[in-house]
């Protein structure tokens, strides 16, 4: 590294600190009113609120650090261009690529450090923040349930909830499977639900609204009998949750509270359980002439194959996959429906884990993307004033929204997790690399 490259790298220190301070302060102010309200309106101890504030800074740092890199690069190269130092280096025959590459290398090292932070420190701060919020709200049963994930901590029940409000313990898109030893599970679906916990009786009460009960009657001796009951309000009481709650205090973690290794372990477990479900349903499918659940017309909507881009594209031309099998009886169709929902939940949970794994690397990699974008943009702007701040904020918002959109599409299995989390980096990064090489006169301008 020549002395000019060292000089340029040294010039980044003050702009980076300024950018990091400004961006972090702006992020803190957004949530500061919520913390103040906890003290003033809810009477929560300032010590507890202070802990929440400290734990929340892990997530804030993971987001603001890449943006600070963009601000630093823009300010540094903007000032160098404004002071004609870039022109002087070019005129003196100093290769600008030798100046730019060490800055890119510094961005790579910074991204590596942020990746370690996201993989080891951030999951712990998120976990402690979530546990403290649960303790404050006093709604401990909601810990047992994760969105889009089958939960088996309630004795004799398995729960699948589409959306969980952890502050109020309210649920939406609820599916409850009541297990029986002598017959198929009872399936209960509801639009909304809520859980409360009686500490004295050690009992949880699940109140469901607007749904149906699907079951094979216990008194029926005929396997083709199937009963559907509509309800406006249905109540389930479950006793003996003390041990499950103590277990969740110690070990229950969401996607953003896990390390990469932990999520890979969970993916292996989910994959094995998914394969077991597929094997258990294979004899029934084969008996009716089907190979996969997606071929059963009544199950196609549950498994949502239409969300696959290829299926959508082929559907525009009127193409449909061939359905060869015979009509399945109501009792066995009920069992298949239960397992189809379970398979969909496994697929969605696996996709969610892969999204979080890629995110731990994609967000730090944005530091390198911002360096590649910031170098040519800073040289072109030739100023270090308001324009730099507007450009930084605008580009960061566009890039961040692209990541959020990709994450949502990937978690709904519309695109792969890799494409969801890396497309924005690849597009902006390749564009930035091209313009940086043009500024370095590797390509003709």
Care to describe what's here?
The structure is a single chain. With 445 residues, the protein is α+β, with helices and mostly antiparallel strands. The chain has three domains: 3-138 and 360-439, no CATH class; 147-251, no CATH class; 262-351, no CATH class. The chain has twelve helices and five strands. Strand 2 (170-178) and strand 3 form a beta hairpin. The longest helix has 52 residues, at 330-381.
Write the topology of this structure.
Blueprint: H1 3-10, H2 13-40, H3 46-82, H4 85-91, H5 96-137, E1 157-165, E2 170-178, E3 186-198, E4 203-215, E5 227-239, H6 242-251, H7 260-287, H8 297-303, H9 309-316, H10 330-381, H11 386-411, H12 417-439
Antiparallel strand pairs: 1-2, 2-3, 3-4, 4-5
Helix pairs in contact: 1-5, 2-3, 3-5, 3-10, 3-11, 5-10, 7-10, 8-10, 10-11, 10-12, 11-12
């Amino acid at each position: 590294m020549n002395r000019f490259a060292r000089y340029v790298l040294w010039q980044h220190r003050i702009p980076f600190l300024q950018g990091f301070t400004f961006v972090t302060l702006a992020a803190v102010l957004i949530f500061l009113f919520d913390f103040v309200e906890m003290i003033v309106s809810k009477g929560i101890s300032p010590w507890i609120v202070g802990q929440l504030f400290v734990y929340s800074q892990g997530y804030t740092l993971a987001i603001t650090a890449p943006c600070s890199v963009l601000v630093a690069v823009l300010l540094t190269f903007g000032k160098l261009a404004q002071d004609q130092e870039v022109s002087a280096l070019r005129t003196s025959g100093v290769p600008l690529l030798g100046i730019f590459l060490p800055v890119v290398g510094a961005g790579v090292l910074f991204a590596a450090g942020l990746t370690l932070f996201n993989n080891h420190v951030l999951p712990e701060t998120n976990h402690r923040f979530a546990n403290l919020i649960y303790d404050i709200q006093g709604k401990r049963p909601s810990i047992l349930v994760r969105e889009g994930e089958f939960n088996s901590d309630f004795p004799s029940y398995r729960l699948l909830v589409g959306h969980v409000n952890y502050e109020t313990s309210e649920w939406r898109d609820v599916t409850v499977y009541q297990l029986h030893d002598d017959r198929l599970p009872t399936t209960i679906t509801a639009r909304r639900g809520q859980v409360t916990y009686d500490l004295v009786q050690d009992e949880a009460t699940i109140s469901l609204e607007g749904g149906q009960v699907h079951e094979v009657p216990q008194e029926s001796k005929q396997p083709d009998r199937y009963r559907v009951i509509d309800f406006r309000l249905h109540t389930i009481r479950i006793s003996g949750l003390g041990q499950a709650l103590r277990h969740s205090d110690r070990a229950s973690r969401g996607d953003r509270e896990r390390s990469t290794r932990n999520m890979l372990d969970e993916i292996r477990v989910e994959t094995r359980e998914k394969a077991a479900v597929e094997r258990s349903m294979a004899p029934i499918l084969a008996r009716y002439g089907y190979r996969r659940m997606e071929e059963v017309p009544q199950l196609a909507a549950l498994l949502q194959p239409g969300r696959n881009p290829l299926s959508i594209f082929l559907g525009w031309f009127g193409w449909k996959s061939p359905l060869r099998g015979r009509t399945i009886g109501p009792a066995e169709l009920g069992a298949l429906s239960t397992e189809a929902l379970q398979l969909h939940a496994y697929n969605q949970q696996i996709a969610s884990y892969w999204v979080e794994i890629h995110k731990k690397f994609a967000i730090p990699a944005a530091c390198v993307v911002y360096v590649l974008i910031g170098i040519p943009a800073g040289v072109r702007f030739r100023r270090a004033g308001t324009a730099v701040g507007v450009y930084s904020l605008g580009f960061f918002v566009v890039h961040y929204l692209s990541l959020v959109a990709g994450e949502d599409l990937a978690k709904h299995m519309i695109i792969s997790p890799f494409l969801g989390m890396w497309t924005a980096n690849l597009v902006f990064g390749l564009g930035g690399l091209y313009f940086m090489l043009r500024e370095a006169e590797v390509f003709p301008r």
